[in-house]
Amino acid sequence: MSKLISIATALPDHRITQDEVLAVLAKARGAALPGRLKQILGNSGIDQRYLARAPDYYLEQRSWPERASVYSEVGRKLSQEAASEALELAALKPSDIDAIVLISTTGTMTPSIPSRMIEAMEFDQSTQTVPVFGHGCAGGVLGLRLANDLAAAGAGQNVLLISLELCSLSYDYSQFDKKNMIATALFADGCAAAVISGKTGRDDAPSFRAFDQKTWPDTRDMMGWDIGETGFDLVLARDIPTFVTKDFAPFCDAFLEVQGLAKSDLSEPACHPGGGRVIEALEDYFAPDLPGIAATRDVLEHYGNMSSPTVLFVLKRLLEQRLTKPLLLTALGPGFTAALGVVDP
Fold it and tell me: What is the pLDDT averaged over residues 263-272?
């Protein structure tokens, strides 16, 4: 399997606290939030987040072209920032990269962001570009799986993975229902980049042991997009914490058994957090073998749910602590799909 050489992250300029989010929601609603709803939104586990635009931007109706313009401007900037840092950390030049994988479900461009990066950052003109749309919150783990497969191809390749999401572009105050308010209270913007290598000479770097994923039937209403008048409209239906307990846990048990691992054999897992209640369900699953998922909680608190990049933010923090035991990667996303992986020290 391939080696994980580096991870870097990038954030947009506009920081907003959760208290400020609740104030924006009340302003958009034209009245104070109902007590019960304010309590739910305030208990999300999030203290602050970063957005592509200042808060007042989201109080106005925006057309498809306007949203696409922001995605192009901010998305390309964040992608290049994260990619540049990941390459520097890996001691590689753009010309050393054989393939660029982009994971993104909150916008799309043709030519793709990786294609545009070739000229902007002086990658070799033969660099393979692989834009992937549709994985949502599971995209961070599934992107690592794809990058690992590409890196292991042939005699070994250097792959740059970019996970970019501007979730705030889906905020829509013309549909001021509970689902959209919860989405506004959870989702954020961010980008992560990683260098994965199948070449020799990187023996000191962590390696990928295995990946797996499962998509359950009759679960498409749990998470996804509908195409609306002004952009993507969020689909967010069933109780995901209950799904973690009932469906995800047995799948994870079976995956670990195949890998010859018990939960007690693992270091702290890197999980896509979802929200506060999802973290609680994951902690219940790992208890009592593991004391908690502090890095996952911390990333949710300081950055919110950025969809696909979030698990890479968590993984970066855990790798900085120097792995001594295998690390489990987990994420849940549209499909409804679970994605799992194991990183070895």
Answer: 97
Do 105 and 305 meet the contact criterion of CB atoms below 8 Å apart?
no
Q: Which of 137, 167, 252, 271 is catalytic?
A: 137
Residues facing residue 344 across a β-bridge: 207
CA dist., res. 329 & res. 340, Å (int) = 5
pTM for the model: 0.94
Sorted by where each starts, the structural domains of the chain and their CATH numbers stand as 3-197 (3.40.47.10), 207-344 (3.40.47.10)
Segment among 146-150, 183-187, 202-206, 250-254 with least mean pLDDT: 183-187
| Eight-state DSSP code of residue 122 | T
Q: Is there a contact between 9 and 310 (Cβ–Cβ < 8 Å)?
A: no
Residue whose structure tokens are 């010859």: 260
Does residue 252 have an active-site annotation?
no
Rg of the chain over Cα atoms, rounded to whole angstroms, equals 19
- Residue with tokens 């292991």, as numbered in its chain: 152
